[in-house]
Design brief:
By secondary structure, this protein is α+β, with helices and mostly antiparallel strands. Helices cover 39% and strands 38% of the residues. It has helices at 10-23, 49-55, 57-67; strands spanning 2-9, 26-33, 36-42, 72-79.
Amino acid sequence: MSTEKFTVSGDQLLSKVKQLIHEGNIRKVRVIHQGKTLIEIPLSVGAPAAAAVILAAPLLAALGAFAALVTECTLEVEKVDK
């Protein structure tokens, strides 16, 4: 398993998370702001991207509301090595 970090602005946050989910080899996405984990989205490895987005929809809605409040945050992504 590998971990990647991305720094994104608030207005890019939701679209970046959706993009990562669509990649399909993501196990977990953490949103970190000022050194604190604010939200963690666990994803099922091997689940089709559409199903993963539907299952994560409530968290994505909360993430969209949060994104409006911050200027910048870090995404930490756990990927499954193929």
